[in-house]
Amino acid sequence: MSTEDAVPKTHKACVYDQPGTCSIAIRDVPTPEPGPNEVLIKLTHSGICHSDYSISTRPLLTSH
């Protein structure tokens, strides 16, 4: 395995830091280790649906 393929110990994550608000923070979090019959997938891009964002200030956050 080359250095480029090595799994980092931490990764960046976008987290809601104040539940019930749109306040988010980018944090370094531990990279999980996959369990039996699981895989760890490297993401290069991600997004959020506008409908998820529009209801994020309510107690309910749905996903699809």
UniProtKB/TrEMBL annotation:
Keywords: Metal-binding, Oxidoreductase, Zinc
Entry keyword annotation includes Isomerase: no
SUPFAM superfamilies: GroES-like
InterPro entries tied to this protein: GroES-like_sf (IPR011032)
Coiled-coil regions listed: none
GO molecular function, one term: metal ion binding
PANTHER family: ALCOHOL DEHYDROGENASE 1-RELATED (PTHR42940), ALCOHOL DEHYDROGENASE 2 (PTHR42940:SF5)
Official protein name in the record: Uncharacterized protein
Organism, scientific name: Xylaria bambusicola
